[in-house]
Amino acid sequence: MRRTEIVAVWTSILILSGTASAWQTPKQGGPYRPTAAERAAIADKTAELGRAVEGLAGRNGERGDDALADVVIAHKAADWALRFDDFFDARDVARALKVLGRGLERAEALGAGRVPWSDGEGGVVRGYRSRVDGSVQPYAVIVPPKTAGEGPFRLDVVLHGRDARLSEVRFFDAHDGKPAPADQAGLVLHVYGRGNNAYRWAGEADVFEAVDAVRRNYRVDDRRVVLRGFSMGGAGAWHLGLHHPGRWSSVEAGAGFTETIRYARLGDPSEATRKLLTIYDAVDYARNAFNVPIAGYGGEIDPQAQASLNILEALQAQGIDMKTEGLVTTAEGVDFRRIVGKGMGHAVDKESAKLLKAFHDDRAAKGVDPLPSRIRFVTYTLKYPQVGWLKIRRLGEHYARATLDADLIDDRATVRTANVVVLAAARRAAATISLDGRDFPLRDAAGESPDVLFRKGADGWEPLDAAQAGAIEANAGREKHPGVQGPIDDAFTGPFLCVRGTGEPANALVHAWAEARLSRFAEEWGRWMRGALPIKDDVDVTEGDFKTHNVILFGDVGSNAWIKALAPEIGLSWNATELKLRGESHPAADHAPVLIQANPRNPLRYVVVNGGHTFGDREFRGTNALLFPHLADFAVFRIGPQEEVVAEGFFDERWE
After folding, report:
1. Which of 52, 91, 131, 343 is deepest in the core (most CB within 10 A)?
2. What gap in Å lies between CA 248 and CA 241, rounded to an integer?
3. In this predicted model, what pLDDT tens digit does every residue of 416-462 receive, in sequence order?
4. Domain around 450
5. In CATH, what number is assigned to the domain containing residue 316?
């Protein structure tokens, strides 16, 4: 019988429900070990809630998947506490039982067609189903008192710090049922972020999926979305604030880290690692502080105050003057400030908190300008391609600095570019546009799409017609494209599907190595990204899967039918005796590739061969700064007692 592991969306969450005997070999987790009776009580109540969830199938009414997710998340919280032994003190047993009780109450109400928890005020932990892996993930919303009105509301997105004792149960207990402050005027979203990952990769996706869930269920003013975080949350705020500068009315980043080599003590990393860090380190995106109001904070004696100092110094290096009064430094011409907490360590003092609150309140009153009159933007990757009314669709070279300098004056847009090959400009921004000195109509340009696309060739910029623009957006040329630009870890930020080979291996050693990588990835994805890894056998994969997922192929050219089918189209020559990639040959008996490409069957999705995350358990347990990409677009491994990378590199802009 084939081992197909893709199951129904909601019942997949229930697979691990069972009796206490199912949990006699706990994974490494917290220091408290529940007694057999305590474990049995949790397991029995988890199973009861699981049966209630199964009974709700097809009966979730007008509220849709979100209401059912609000029930399922209570089940998952307890279920995964058992799975990973996430009990850190004796009170976690009572917390788990309390969460299950809340889930049973919700299941009963939903069965009667009611969703009372969605209409109250104060704290409520809810769930959403992630598009990344189909898992249900939690988020907490603090709803303002009724006196705040009916909205639309300002939304404050709060990123938590690193907590080795964080679990879904504890997150639920910390937020659900807590009263809102009497003076709270807007919505506050506390992001779970899939645990402790500094809001990178699927953790980054979680932030935006949680925001979308709040938008679906509450009235949010999209022009007044504030991003705040401290410590690991500060690292996340630096990252998300500077990589996505057009999304926030203001950003507050307390402590954290903004560069990796010194912070994580990497020594002298390889050239490939240095390139990959240009998509990871917030300091390389300091220029984007031109495009979003941002306040950095650090305690006077906190080593993590270096994070905001890095950004300040990077802005100074770009010619920005600073003015310091006391412990507050402000930039001239850029809405950036650095606040230092007098005498403070790793905490925020009351006076600094007042300054930060006033900073956000003032900027939220203005809101995000969808058509900013000035843009000064930098990126190194099409993973982060846009700001305001401009979107980069092609780069000249990835991991090299690309910039946009744009101004809107008197209905005329003037844009200066570097390392940009295809650019989209919002038609409504201006009547005309000047691109590196060449003028074109914009508002009345040919076509009806909201954006007008331009390509830079040997003779300069030219507008694209509808067919040409459509080919760019469809990635018909199978190039590096926004969302399909690599590196390998990026494949796990959108919908993905792992595909296990079931055929006769060309080389048993290679196939066993690939199987071990898949098994390790599944374990680490569950523990650290809090989801069940989606897996299918190769014989069960359909063309429809290629339309909707990044496909991650495990095995060799004999065992995985899809590796065999796609290899010639992704530059891979592979048979039982020889592996050839980028012109280099390797013995196939003990060598295997790991690579990412735009999928020939769907160039808007990835195909990955033998690759999970390029970091693993050691990095997750260490500092969050270690979760940078550890491999380039491709690598060849020599398989043996000491696994070794014998070749590594980047594909060009055409994936060649």
Report:
1. 52
2. 7
3. 999 999 999 999 999 999 999 999 999 999 999 999 999 999 999 99
4. 386-473
5. 3.40.50.1820
- Which domain-ending residue is among 448, 473, 498? 473
Looking at residue 178, its pLDDT comes to 95
CA 123 to chain centre: 24
Which band of pLDDT confidence, cut at 50, 70 and 90, is reported for residue 28?
A: very low
Confidence grade of residue 30 (pLDDT, cut at 50, 70, 90): low
Both 554 and 495 in a single domain? yes
- Output the pLDDT for position 59: 62
Domain boundary, last residue among 87, 111, 135: 111
Q: Following DSSP, what letter does each residue of 207-273 receive, concatenated?
A: HHHHHHHHHHHS-EEEEEEEEEEETHHHHHHHHHHHHSGGG-SEEEEES--S-STTTTT--S--HHH
DSSP-assigned letters across all residues of 569-620: GGTEEE-SSEEEETTEEEETTSEEEEEEEEETTEEEEEEEES-S-SS-HHHH
How far apart (Å, rounded) are the C-alpha atoms in residues 385 and 392?
Answer: 5
Predicted confidence (pLDDT) per residue in 76-101, tens digit: 999 999 999 999 999 999 999 999 99
Burial class (CB in 10 A: 0-12, 13-18, 19+), 647: middle
Q: Are residues 427 and 545 in the same domain?
A: no
- The reply to whether 89 and 150 lie within a common domain is no
pLDDT average, residue stretch 578-593: 97
Give dist(CA 584, CA 175) in Å, integer. 55
> How many CA atoms lie less than 13 Å away from 384 in the CB half-sphere?
30
**42 shares its domain with 66:** yes
Say yes or no to pLDDT of 401 above 90: yes
Sheet with 220-230: list strands edge to edge.
Answer: 122-129, 136-143, 187-191, 153-159, 220-230, 250-254, 294-299, 336-341, 328-331, 322-325
Read off the tokens for 376: 């000064």
Total domains in the fold of the chain = 4
Q: Would residue 42 count as lying in a domain?
A: yes
Under a CB-based contact definition with an 8 Å cutoff, are residues 346 and 304 in contact? yes
Same domain, 82 and 104: yes
3 state SS of 294: strand
- Note whether 601 and 629 are same-domain residues: yes
420-439 burial, b if ≥16 CB within 10 A, otherwise e? bbbbbbbbebbebbbbeeee
**CATH, residue 493:** 3.30.379
Q: Tell me if 89 is assigned to some domain.
A: yes
Is the confidence at residue 237, as pLDDT, over 70?
Answer: yes
The Cβ of residue 321 has, within 10 Å, a number of other Cβ atoms equal to 11
Of 559, 552, 551, whose CA–CA distance to 521 is shortest? Answer: 552
- CA 241 to CA 292: how far, in whole Å? 8
Same domain, 44 and 88: yes
Q: What's the average model confidence in pLDDT over 486-513?
A: 98
CA distance linking residue 433 with residue 291, whole number of Å: 20
Sheet strand arrangement including 591-599: 535-537, 496-500, 550-554, 602-609, 591-599, 634-638, 644-649
Contact 626, 198 (CB under 8 A): no
For residue 111, give both structure tokens: 């069965």
**Residue 300 maps to a domain:** yes
Query: Same domain, yes or no, for 457 and 492?
Result: no
DSSP string, 411-476: TEEEEEEESEEEEEEEGGG-SEEEETTEEEE-TT-SS-SSEEEEEEETTEEEE--HHHHHHHHTTT
Token digits for 11?
A: 């019942």
User: How far apart, in whole angstroms, are the C-alpha atoms of residue 290 and residue 246?
Assistant: 10
pLDDT at 63: 56
